[in-house]
Amino acid sequence: MRSYRDLCGIARALDLVGERWALLVVRELLFGPKRFADLHRGLPGMSQNVLTQRLRELEDSGVLARRRSLPPGAGLVYELSDRGRALEPVLLALGQWGSPLPPVPESATELSPDALVVALRTTFDPIAADDLHCSVQLELPGDAFHLAVKDGRLTAVRGTADADAVLTASVRTVQDLVFDGRKLRDVIRSGDATTAGDAAVLRRFLAAFDDHRAG
Predict the structure, then answer these.
(1) Considering the chain, what percentage of its residues have pLDDT values greater than 70?
(2) Which of 74, 120, 121, 191 is surrounded by the fewest CB atoms within 10 Å?
(3) pTM of the model
(4) Do β-strands 153-158 and 134-140 pair in parallel, antiparallel, or remain unpaired?
(5) Which CATH number fits domain 113-206: 3.30.420.40, 3.40.50.2000, 3.20.20.140, 3.30.1050.10?
């Protein structure tokens, strides 16, 4: 790994996580451990060789660790260390800073599931949410997240739990609902989404984001 050879703490941090793709690997692990194949699926523009290199560098730097998957899983998984998890507010701040910027023409049109949930957290507007206190279960193809709004904050955990409302849809459909102004009734009518629970809560939740900032 190259070094800036600069005494500043920012430079020293970038010595460890400043290589291309490194912070996006951390993003993909914010909500829990993943196998190599799952990481690569969330970062399709990254070659397997580069992913292998970044994982090795981040492990050597103490940002993440490898371990055996717990039953019923098998094989190796990668997970953030305490030091790696401490990067979460840094990533959220970067997301908030970068969300208003237009994507480059060759950008992918769909976020990874983890990137979608990070985008929800970085564009959540506590003023628009007002006094909203709720939980929403987000069911994506092959993945799920439990989202909770309380005291003007949005938190997210991978997995399923009891919720006030359930939204089952693709990542692209959720992007359309939150960032492109597509109406919930339209995606339900078209069959692009199904819902359960309190529909009014779900509509309020979907309106609690800054839709001028494209995730």
Answers:
(1) 97
(2) 191
(3) 0.92
(4) unpaired
(5) 3.30.1050.10
